[in-house]
Design goal:
Elements lengths: L1 E3 H10 L4 E5 L3 H17 L4 E6 L6 H10 L8 E8 L5 H12 L5 E7 L4 H4 L2 H9 L1 E4 L8 H11 L3 E2 L1 H11 L3 H14 L4 E2 L1 H7 L8 H9 L3 H13 L4 H23 L4 H7 L7 H10 L2 H18 L7 H14 L10
Parallel strand pairs: 1-6, 2-5, 2-6, 3-4, 4-5, 7-8
Helix pairs in contact: 1-2, 4-6, 7-8, 7-9, 8-10, 11-12, 11-15, 12-17, 13-16, 13-17, 16-17
């Protein structure tokens, strides 16, 4: 059975399947979906809980099977939670999961949480068996347009009334960060448990969470979002972040992509290069976009520009560091070459 996250609560009132898989890239919502299933199970007598974090080196038979078949002295019903994170089950794990999906363990609830499922993983035998005999809960991200309504509903759940314009302001301040939004709503509920939250309340009480760190800037720039990247860069400058740290992060990513671009030309598969260079799944779409738009000589040109910024930082070459970082960021996000710089 397939469910969207909003359908989960009503499903749990009537049913509790033996196996759930919760997937999505919005960490807060995935965690809350798992917590909702866990809470419903505890009401039905599942009093013991084991949480296992799975990585690429996990020996499924040794760790998971021993845990799954161990007996408890204190509870007859238990919950086993598997956190796959960015790890994809190997062939051995596929067999184990398929077996569990077709024949669930008695008095055991299995909850699997993972990132958004790709087409390859959704086509595996274990996932098909789980979807047939258990419940697959898909958690979709909250879009910027949906965020004010999400904030209003979450506030209402805490018996807090928030005006629409105030919800829009809060959405702008947290920049799509659901965890930050949830924390601010909880803080508002404590500060003003009665009455309506207005724009004035938001301005006085809410921390500006649109303070982006350097790694978020890098991720956004290589994903091609010019407007947001420039805003992040301006925030970093306003917060007196050392420009050398920004340059280091951008340069490191460019060097990695230059090496990947070179090896792709030598016939190496991009997927294996992502593994070799330890590129997280979340960063891969941005890197793919960049590699599709930038040639290897253009990567070298970007590195030449970065080298110039380094000379400015050291006082060897005249110039404004932040202006140059802005230009470099523009060149990355737009996927355009740097005509003033040649292969170093």
């Amino acid at each position: 059975m397939k469910l969207n996250y909003p359908q989960l609560a009503s499903h749990l009132i009537k049913n509790l399947a033996p196996i759930y898989i919760v997937s999505g890239d919005e960490t807060l919502l995935v965690q809350e979906a798992v917590a909702l299933i866990r809470s419903s199970a505890r009401e039905k007598g599942y009093t013991e809980r084991t949480s296992l974090s799975i990585d690429a080196g996990t020996d499924w038979e040794k760790i998971f099977h021993s845990e799954a078949h161990s007996l408890s002295l204190f509870a007859t019903k238990r919950i086993i939670e598997l956190q796959l994170a960015g790890t994809k089950p190997n062939a051995n794990a596929n067999k184990i999961l398929q077996s569990l999906a077709n024949k669930p363990l008695q008095d055991t609830l299995l909850i699997i949480s993972t990132h958004k499922l790709d087409a390859k993983l959704s086509a595996t035998n274990w996932y098909k068996a789980l979807e047939k005999n258990g419940v697959a809960v898909q958690v979709w991200p909250i879009t910027p347009d949906q965020l004010p309504a999400w904030i209003s509903q979450r506030a209402k759940n805490l018996k807090l009334n928030i005006a629409l314009d105030a919800a829009k302001l809060l959405a702008e301040l947290v920049e799509g960060n659901l965890l930050a939004a949830a924390q601010e709503i909880e803080k508002l509920a404590m500060l003003q448990p009665a009455g309506t939250i207005t724009i004035d309340t938001i301005e006085q009480a809410v921390t500006d969470n649109a303070r982006f760190d350097i790694f978020t800037l890098v991720e956004c720039a290589f994903s091609g979002n010019t407007k947001r990247s420039l805003r992040m860069l301006a925030n970093l400058q306003a917060e007196d972040v050392e420009p050398i740290l920004v340059l280091w992060a951008l340069s490191r990513e460019i060097r990695t992509l230059a090496e990947i671009s070179y090896q792709v030309k030598q016939g190496v598969a991009l997927s294996s290069l992502f593994t070799k260079f330890r590129v997280w799944e979340k960063r891969q779409p941005g890197m793919r976009r960049f590699l599709q738009q930038q040639t290897l000589p253009e990567c070298w040109a970007l590195l030449s520009h970065a080298a110039k910024i380094d000379r400015i930082l050291k006082g060897i070459t005249p110039g404004n560091v932040w202006d140059e970082l802005q230009q470099l960021t523009l060149q990355i996000t737009r996927g355009s070459p740097c005509p003033n710089y040649s292969n170093p």
